Structures are given as structure tokens and as C-alpha cells.
Amino acid sequence: MDTPQLIKVTIDGQEVHVPVGTTIMEAARQIGPDVAPPAMCYYKPLKGSGGKCRACLVKVSQGSEKDPRPMPKLVASCITGAQDGMVVENFTSPEVVEARKGVVEFLLLNHPLDCPVCDQAGECHLQDFAFENGVGTTRYEEERRTFEPENLGDNIQLHMNRCVLCYRCVYTADQITDKRVHGVMYRGDHAEISTYINNVIENDFSGNVIDVCPVGALTDKTYRFKSRVWFSKPVDAHRDCDKCCGKVNLWYKGDEVIRVTARKNQWGEVEDFICNSCRFDSKKTADWVIEGPTKVKRASVISANKYPKNEIKKPAFALDYAAHNFKKINDDRPYYKNLKEVKGSEDYKALMEQNAEFFPKETSKK
Amino acid sequence: MAKGIKILTEHINTPGIETFEVYKKSGGYAAVEKVIKKMTPEEVVEEVKKSGVRGRGGAGFPMGMKWSFLAKPEGVPRYLVCNADESEPGTFKDHFLMKSIPHLLIEGMIVSSFALGAHKSFIYVRGELMYVIRILEKAIEEAKAAGYLGKNILGSGYDLELVVQPGGGAYICGEETALLESLEGKRGNPRNKPPFPAVKGLYQSPTVVNNVESIANTPWIINNGGDAYAALGIGRSTGTKLISASGHIKNPGVYEIELGLPVEEFLYSDEFLGGIRDGHHLKAVVAGGSSVPILPANLFLKTANGEDRLMSYESLSDGGFASGTMLGSGGFIAMDETTCIVRNTWNFSRFYHHESCGQCSPCREGTGWMEKVLHRIEHGHGNMRDIDLLVDVAKKIEGNTICPLGDAAAWPVASAIRHFRDEFEWHVKYPKEATMKGAVYVKEEVLV
Amino acid sequence: MSDKIAFSEDRLAKAKEIILRYPEGKQKSALLPLLHLAQEQFGWVSAASMDYIAEMLQIEPIEVYEVATFYTMFHLEPVGKHVIEYCRTGPCCTMGGEEVYDHLKTKLKIEANQTTSNGLFTLKEVECLAACGWGPCFQIREKFYMHLTNEKVDGIIEELSK
Which of C:8-67 have CB within 8 Å of B? Predict the structure, then answer.
């Protein structure tokens, strides 16, 4: 038979039919981002990844149609195969939510939280994961673990203190590049990404470790401290490359290409890895054929301030609904450049008058 | 009950038992002769199944059942790996068995390999026991010279090679998939399961991993029959068990007991531990190696409903974690009233922090966190909220990790607080007294 | 590259024998035994000796570094003539291990991970050595010293200092 056999899986109350051998994670991703468990170490394009971070733990409340017993423990959805008739609880299970809070806390335990100076901030999976699944405070009072800095060469910057030991860069070096010179040294909470002998990571595809890194442990040295991601504008572009697919995102700041990365899918995964010459050596617009703006998720900070009013399309049904249900606001207030102008405006005066009782007299006198 | 029967240690005091000659004279290698000449591999598996012998490494999974899970695809080699990476604090029985009577393990390896159809089997011994590795290698040489190992064993056409592999100092390699990784020359990171070793183990081939003591039981089972073994012991705890005894007892050492022996008899009779050292009282017991829950003496001797507790898988775990513990690997650590439970918990916690492989986040980060908090409490810098914090961290590690090391790290902390909370509180409330040398908090009613 | 390093003749023969123990193509399994062999000869495991082993097993050097740093038995830095690996785990402590350890440190005038000024002793703290009922204990190379007391420790140190 050519058609693959499909099995039925229910995740957070939503049914999906997937081929035999699909993991719970992949089944959930088919339903959509609302039910897909978070992942810090699992990376579909990298064989063998997953199972380590425990961010994607889910509860299996029914093992399968044949054997409906629940699984005794929470399971990592990225490595657990779905069974026919399986029922999975993800965001709907208080147990899972609680365990995930724990995972966030564990991952942040020794994390330096140096987001203000971290190049990854704004596109960091740990930020997203913590924001969506964690709590706002920590109970950790002990000293944080730190590592000696190690220089990996001119292109890749290693900040071991930020690493969550997802092993993705190790798999990338094994599977995408032709020689691996870095790995995980030592063990336990002193395990670290290192070359051990202060080697330089240098081969045609080594730059991909930057893209797979979920946090700011491996960043692009040529882009270091140049901008913040939300100040730059990504566009899709391609070029003929004899080494790789040549399909990239160019990150513009003004007219300058400040960074080149591989394209990431909805789950933040790179499907077509790119070579170092595309990434590090082709930073002129002339090197590329521009396809158009990269689609950015609305929730992402990268989309902030990127879309002028006239580019935002409001669907007809929404406008219709609004017209019937809400009062129209006149939003034609002028935009003022400085405080002096603001204070002179009619808007401001009216506002102050209305609220005079809240302001001390001398201020309102002015 | 045939009292005092010894399956593994009957000949252990015979002078020269470490040599092939003396071992053979004491009835050794009869099981190899029997399986090779008179039995099929399936019959051997059947006998082991009948015996009901359970894995002696700690988990207590029925060995025969584990064997029967082994996948047998055509043209793919199968492996037997003996787990001699004994590193659980409190456990030293395999060390003792291998150095004293190496041929027993070798014989068991031949019998078991034959049953599983393995032609190359490994004994993974922790690297610290290099002298034991040399003893085993010598024993293998002797067995080979006598025709019990190598090509065409006893003219049967069955070939078997035994390789002794040293570890490198990592408790985690006692976890079977970490052991296999280590045996493949990699870091001892436990694998994600499934696939289980029975399907994809060593070199991605079907593999069975068994503890030293489990394998050493097989010659007796073959010689006397699985039913005879099953007749020993009590209920589903069949046969005998080696118990490593340490701590504040009169006679520390390794003992072979028939499962079902009353705890009280084991602890106090002169035949076994001889009681607590003179002038002292039992405060707490860790019954099965450092990872199992610690129990206060009063809860240990009797079960929750007042019955005598027995040395068996079931009786020791009676009452769940609320008032029970586990037989585990049989690492019996007795502590008298001079033991500070907080210090001891910190010590165990440091062990698990040191031994975590660092692969999955709850264990990597959680073990270190618990150790640091316990260190603070022990050294007089604790807070009351730290105690609940420890319980919560332990809960968040337990069950959420790739391998059981997470559980092993969480249980001692959770159980110590469950049963000795007032001692932790005393450390927080009276840091000055608690950090004085030799100062220990004792509650009379837990002592026995 | 650092200085060329090589196994002595008998160890080389041993290494070759070890590599042949494993199924074809699985020679990486010989890694731990070879690291032990290197440590036996050189006293510690240097990057150069790891590179040498990698070459012998036809694997990448990084694979050796990863493994050697994972296992605690391998000394990654030069050590004294006798490495005392002292068990500091619970059961040994119950049997008086902490007091004996303090005595040992005072006697040698060093702390853990230090080497005496005469280069004779390096002190390392290790976890459970599976000799709990025979504790307190420490290990020097392959030899176990068990049922330690302060006096016994004095005797051992004096004997080894000769």
C-alpha cells in the first residue's frame, strides 16, 4: 500500500491524523502553534536532537486505543511516538504547566539574564519560553555558575554562561559540517561547550551553529553589538551559491546589511542551512536578489515599528463589526516631536484642564 | 524455609576459590556443562523465568522477563553486557563478589550468553576497580585455557568471547543506556528511551544489560532448577540477596540473606550485623543504597500497620514513600544517634550533583541547587523557606528527567525532610548550636 | 602540535590487543581502556596523548576530549607521584571518614586538588569507591587502603614517602 497508515491523536482536545511513527510534538505542530509544546533542544532538521531540555513535557492521559492506560510520568513529546487513539494533555494539564514552570526556573537558574547586552535578545527562545511558561521571580539565592571565555575565531562568539546545553550546535557540527572541533566537555552543571584546546571553529558551514543556538551562547561576531534585532529589518533574498542553497534573510539597518542568517520556519528551525561565504562574506545588497520583506510573527518584537499604518490591512468583517459595535474615535491628533510642542498643543491643554485637580498649582500655572 | 542457604557465597571462604582449579573442584562450571550439553537456549531462559529472580542492580525487574524481551532479528548480533559499575553509595556487594569468586561471574556470563545467543559479551567494571578487572581477566584466561570460553566451547560449536571493559569514574554509567554509550567509547549520557536496549542497545544491536549479582545467580538456577530458586525467599521476592552493610553496626560487610528475613533478625543477630555499636541506638536506616528514601528507626523495624518488616522487595516498600522505602541494590547503611541527618543529606546530595551527567535540565540544575541549599542549612545559613524550597525542587526533578538519576537525587532529600523535618528546622533556628562540632539533634522517639 | 608522544613498546602491543577486542568498525570502544593506558604511562592525560589516541582509533580528537573530561578518573593536569583519591561519600563519613580526611590534609599540608611541594602526593576527593563497609578508605592507583584511622594514614604516608 502506498498511502501511509494514519493514526488519530488528540492533543488538548483537538484531533489530528498523522502517519505512524510521528512524534507527539510533530502531531501537535500539525494542529498549530496553540497546542505545540515549546522546545529548547529539539530541532527537527537535526537527527538525534531532543529529549534533553524537558520543556516539551506533556501528559499522556490515554496511551492508545488498544491500551488506554495513562503513562505514569510526563513524557518528552519530541521523542515520544504517538499511538493510535492517544490522548495528550499539554497546556490544559495543570501538572504539565507546573512542571514547565520548573523547567523554566531550572534553565534560568544559572543563566546570567544579561538580555540588555545580549545580541540574541528579541529572537531568543529562552526569553519566549520563560515569558510564556515561567513565573516572574526566582527562588535561587546562590551564586551563579560562570565559565572562562573561550575564543572560537573571527566569526563565532561563544558566551558559555548563557548556554542551556541543548547540544544542537554539536549535532549541527556533526551533521552539517565536515569536521567537528567543538563539543561538550566535563559533565553535570559544569558541562561546557568548548574546543578544549582553544581551537578555532572554521569550516564552510560552521556558521550554522549560530542559527541553531536557541539562546545567545553562540552569536555572530561580525554582527556583535551592531544593533538590536528589533531595530533591523529582515528581507528574504537569494543568490547563486555553489556551496549552499543561497536562500537567506538579510537584516538591514538603514541601507546597510548588518547580518545574514538562514531562513527559519514557523518553529524557529532552519531547513536550508547556508554556507559561511553567504553568511559572513556577502554583506552587500549587490550580492543578493531581494525577494521582499520577511514574514514576521505579529507577536514578535521584531515586527515592532515595522509596518506603517497604510500597510496594515484590516479585513472587511472586522471593520464592519467595529462600525456596528463601537463608537468611532477621531484619531487624527498631530504627532509632536518634542515636549515643548506637546505642551503647546490644544490636546495637552484640554487634558490638563480636565485633570487640573491632580496637578500641583505651579505646574498648571505655567 | 531452608534457613541460611547460600547461593552465591557458599564457597566464598574456600582457600584458593579465585582460581579455576579450586572453583571447579567446588562444583564450578557444572552449569556450563549442563546448558551446553543438555539444554537449548530457550530452556535456559525458561528456567530463569521460572526462578522469578529479579534484577539485583536496584530496579528489581524480573530478569527472565527482561531476557524474553530481547529482539532476535536474523543476521544481527546480540549482546550481553554485565553491569559491574557498582557506584551507589552504600553498595559494595559486586566488588566483593568479583574479587572473591570471579569464576562465579564468568560462569554466569557463559550460561547467560548461551541463553541469549550472544557470542561477544562484556563485563563493564567501574574503572576504580582496576585490580578487580585484572582478577577477572585472569579468570577469563583460565576458563579459556580449560575450554569453557573461546571458540567451540566443549566441542558444542558455540563460541563466546568475554571482554572486561573498564569505566572511567562516572556513577551515571550504572544506568544501562549510559553504560552502553560508555562502552561505545562515548560520554556516559543516558539515551532517550524508547528504543530500549532489548531492541537497540550496544552498537544499535539487541542487548541485555544485567547486574553482576543477577548473572551470578544463573549457575545455581541451572544446577538446581528455576523452581528450587523460586521456592526460596518470600512471595515475589524469590531467592537470596547480597546485602552490603555499612555504618554504625558491629559487623559491617557483605551478607547473603534469603529474602524474607526479618529486618530485626538481620540487624541484631550475631550471624549478621550484630546490632548497633555498643552504647548507641539506631536512628535511621538507608536500606537499599543512598538513592532510596531514608527511614527513621522506628518506622524501619515495623511496617505502618505494626507488622515485622522483612528484607524483601515488597515488605520494605510497604507503606509507599510515606512510611516505606525500597530494597534497591541492597546497600544497607545504619546510622546511630550521632549522625546528623542534615549533614548526611547534604553529603548524598553533593554526590548526585557531582555525578549528574548534565544532559537534561532538571537534573543538571536541580541537583546543584539542592546541594547548595543543603550546604547553607548545614552551615547555619538556612531559612525556614529553604526547607519547603527543597521539597519543591525535589518534586520538580522527580520523574521529569531522562534517566532515574533525577529520582535518585530527589528521593533522599524529600524523604529526609519528610521524616526529619524538625532536625532541619533546628538547624535553621539554632545555627550556632547546629554548627558546633559534634552537635546533633536527636528526638528520643525515633531511636530504637 | 605539542611534542610527539607515544606508548611504550609493551603498552603499544597491549593497545593493539585491546582495539581488536571489539567488533570491526567499533574500535572507538577502546577509548576508555586506552586513556587508562595513557594515564598509567604518563601519570596524566595531556592533550597530546589524547590526540595520539584519536589517531590510533581513527576518530576526531574532539571525541577524545569530550570523553576524557566526562570521566573523573582521568587527570587532565600533571599530578604528584602518588594520587590519593579519598572517598568523601556518606557511608565512609558515617564510619569516621571526615575526621581521618582532616587528619590527612593536615599531615600532607595540602587541600583537595593540590600537590605537596615535594611533588610526592596529590590529593583528590572522589565519590563512593564501593568499599562502604570497609571505610573510611582511599585509593592510590589500583590499591585500596581501607579501615583507615589516623595512625594508619600516618603509616601509609611515611611508607610512601620513603
Answer: 21-23, 26, 28-33, 35-36, 57, 59, 63, 66-67
What was the ipTM of the complex prediction? 0.95
Contact C132 B165 (CB under 8 A): no
Which residues are paired to B261 by β-bridges?
Answer: B311
The alpha carbon of residue A184 is apart from the nearest alpha carbon of chain C, in Å, by 6
Closest by alpha carbon to A53, among B200, C121, B400, C84?
B400
Nearest CA to CA, how far is A190 from chain C (Å)? 10
Q: What are phi and psi of A252, to 5 degrees?
A: -95, 145
Which CATH number do you get for residue C104? 3.40.30.10
Q: Return the SS3 of C126.
A: strand
Each domain of chain B, given as residue ranges in start order, spans 20-231, 250-336, 341-446
CATH number of A143-225: 3.30.70.20
The whole-model pTM stands at 0.91
Nearest of B331, B91, B347 to residue C98 by alpha carbon:
B347
* Nearest by CB: B171 against C22, C30, C127: C127
**Domain limits for position C98:** 82-161
Give the pLDDT of chain A (366 residues) as one tens digit per residue. 566 789 999 999 999 999 999 999 999 999 999 999 999 999 999 999 999 999 999 999 999 999 999 999 999 999 999 999 999 999 999 999 999 999 999 999 999 999 999 999 999 999 999 999 998 888 999 999 999 999 999 999 999 999 999 999 999 999 999 999 999 999 999 999 999 999 999 889 999 999 999 999 999 999 999 999 999 999 999 999 999 999 999 999 989 999 999 999 999 999 999 999 999 999 999 999 999 999 888 778 888 777 666 766 778 888 888 888 887 766 666 666 677 777 777 878 888 888 777 776 654 444
- Tell whether domain A6-103 is in CATH 3.40.50.2300: no
User: Using CA atoms, how far apart are residues B372 and B382, in angstroms rounded to an integer?
Assistant: 10
